[in-house]
């Protein structure tokens, strides 16, 4: 068998290797570094419920992959989400690991 | 060969996600996000092509056989009306693409610098146009040759500089195409300046729109 087998390949980051979180990180990574996206637009793009998105964002935020910042009060409030350098690096590493795995399959 | 990756994520979160499916999902999500955030719309380019074809075309039509060869006021009304329509279409596309996106401070500074560069190039060219008229240069040169070409060359030149810095090759190509078409058309007098610039820039924008569509399909 050519290349590396799945069992010896770089492990896929379990935090990203979940469909919803993979889509969150991939969407945010499309923006230039430093740009932020509102929670509402991210939710619309991914077609998720607010609760579901919050749950996954919290896990990514705990790992330092994304930052969330709430501004304003009441109906004027908005939450901005951004991918951190660490999150971007994690996605790059995940993509590389995926390439390694698929090369070995 | 076992194609199923046994990841460490829990099964209820989709930890059994096959690497092939993950790769597909990653590419699909990136492609959709790029389209959603993309402000370089083929539609806007086609609308711009229409502005050049019909706006510049109206001016060319109105000045044929006239002495002096300057465009009629009605044709300039058509031109500026079409420019206004294309600006509205462009702003709608832009606001849809950038809804919910906040630019970084650096990106905002870059946008401001680009706007100043392009704006000052345009204003400078129009001021020179006014100065030429006040110095007694004839109508045909000022409104027939200079008017449709030099401000366009100045704006395209400033934009080309910004695109070159960003390594935006398609946009840079379109800007250079504008400069080539507008500058060469000045050899053909007022009718050539309006007619050839209109036709040439229309073609440049149609090629640009086609290139955007091709790039979107390749991605």
Quaternary form: heterodimer
Radius of gyration over C-alpha positions of chain A, nearest whole angstrom: 16 Å
Give, in order, the helices and strands of chain A: HEHHEEH
Largest sheet of chain A: 3 strands, antiparallel
User: What structural class do the secondary elements of chain A suggest?
Assistant: alpha+beta
**Poorly predicted ranges of chain B (pLDDT <50, ≥5 residues)?**
1-12
Chain-averaged pLDDT of chain B: 91
Structure, described:
The complex is a heterodimer of chains A (105) and B (219). Helix content of chain A is 50%, strand content 14%. Chain A contains four helices and three strands. Chain A has helices at 19-30, 39-46, 50-62, 85-104, and strands at residues 36-38, 66-71, 78-83. Chain A has a three-stranded antiparallel beta sheet. The longest helix of chain A has 20 residues, at 85-104. Chain A is elongated and about 50 Å long. The relative contact order of chain A is 0.24. The model of chain A is unreliable at 1-8 (pLDDT under 50). In chain B, helix 6 runs antiparallel to helix 7 (189-218). Chain B is built from seven helices and one strand. Mean pLDDT of chain B is 91; it is low at 1-12. With 219 residues, chain B is mostly helical. The longest helix of chain B has 30 residues, at 105-134. The chains are: A alpha+beta (105), B mainly alpha (219). The interface between A and B is medium-sized, with 35 and 34 residues.
